Amino acid sequence: MPPYLHLLRPHQWIKNFFLYLPAFFAQRITEGLLVGKISLTVIGFSAIASSVYIFNDYQDREDDRLHPSKRNRPLAAGTVSINSAFTLFGVLLIMGFSLLFWVSLQAGYWALGYLFLNLAYSLFLKQIPIIDLYLIAMGFVIRIALGASVDAIPLSMWIILMTFLLALFIGLAKRRDDVSLAAEGKNVRKSISGYNLPFINGAMMIMASVLIVSYISYTISADTQEKFSNPYLYVTVFFVILGILRYMQLTLVEERSGTPTLILWKDRFLQLTILGWLISFVVLIY
Length: 286
Prior knowledge:
- The chain is mainly α and 286 residues long.
- Helix content is 73%, strand content 0%.
- The model has no long low-confidence stretch (mean pLDDT 91).
- It has helices at residues 3-8, 21-25, 32-64, 74-77, 82-103, 105-123, 131-149, 157-183, 197-220, 222-228, 237-253, 260-266, 268-285.
């Protein structure tokens, strides 16, 4: 990948599809104008997210040079100069916020919150165990809040709760990869000193269990069934459990959970599971 494109981490943009979820669950994803506005918001937010990655890479460049895979990042490898990186950082922020504030003032404000949260994360908060995971999870909650703010789509407590739990689960899996590397004597982030494999394995079990129970409760709740006029949403639970089990297999058995977005791009099992969930949900509520 060309160094400047690598610096933007385009594979991470898949996470920004969370912005579509409020419209999907509100049964408004078929509204062309709304989807167009959300798509513009995704583009603007992706620019801001990439600027955050640039700043994070700048902060971590010395440690990344000692990491087995992160040493290939452009700033750590020296394939992009610091001056060029900060120029791109500024251009992305201007483009991203200009687009977001044009689409929706509320979306722009949520993006500002995301930016400040992640700058604080990059500067010092990511060194605090557990807090680092909470901030990553909050980034996903901000994504769905931003997507909802485009057209004042109401957010249910269920989507907020399950987004937070899912992000914590995936974040723990990513930390497990760092703990495994640290056990091999390789350089990783400082906050890993606050984790070990028994803790992460146990925490992942808890998050997976709570997430599954929350999703089951959501599908069988009277409010959900009344909203969608369908008593069979529980059928989608089978895909959710299958997806969680597959991700735990990738993490605990195959030990390749270091980059969640690349897993999603490459793992056919997960892709088919998500597709099955999506098709079943669309058939049931649309």
